[in-house]
Amino acid sequence: MMNWLICGTVPDDNFPLCLGTWMVEKEMLVPVSSFDGSGPIPCVPVRRGTPALSASAILAANALSSSPPALLLAGDQGSGKGSARLYDFLAEWLIKDESANIKGLTFHYMFPSVDGHNRILMALDERKGTRPRLIADAGFMYAAKMSGFAARYDVFTPDAGELAFLADEKAPHPFYTRGFFLADGQDVPALARMAFDHEDSAKILLVKGKTDLIVEHGEVTASVSKPCIPFMEPIGGTGDIVTGLLTAFASAGIPLFQACVRAAQAARFAGEAADPTPATSVSQIMPFIKEGVIRTNA
Question: How many separate domains does the chain show?
């Protein structure tokens, strides 16, 4: 039985589609068990992207003494083929295995596909019982907006640039976001309001940036700016850590607004403990995730 499911890709076209549980050892994701009879599954280095999100979620769940989320992964180095396999498998599995009592799903790096996205939503609609909570970041957030069903989601975790795409009701793809949405004069609260008014926003936004903003129904209701760790900004994957932390808090039963606030705080606390330099990798922050999570209880 799984509590929460993270869905995303690994940047390796030879990596197999697999559904199972994992643990974190040093700087690697290590498979523990498989739910779908997958053959041998290789370990995954924790650098950035879905592996970084997954590792932070697993480590945070351990710190919270809650069940870590399961992972549904596929290899995709940019062709979209692995993402397509993941879309197909998940849409079928959600209908076939209704016994899986999933409280929530977190969608991460997947090649945006409106058709694949909509088949997953339809599969969720066919399931009996309570609707799982839905969190989306990166490519799947794009697909949710492009499909017209963004408002079905509970939380999006964009940065300011991704928020500009959500706010532009005429942009069918991030490449076509109109220039004035990216201008300095467009502040994050205004963009969040536009996205919500056009139904291109989840109910809650955790907007990641120098100051993290939590937006509910188009209005900023909380912000997290301290501790300020300047060297966290250039490290690729720190935004993935935030979404992983959010997943762990939500999976532990913490209300989503509080989960967003604590995720933003925990990421900063972990960064402060890691004392990063511009050369620090995201994997080097992972040993401090537990400390970051514990400090949010203070």
Answer: 1
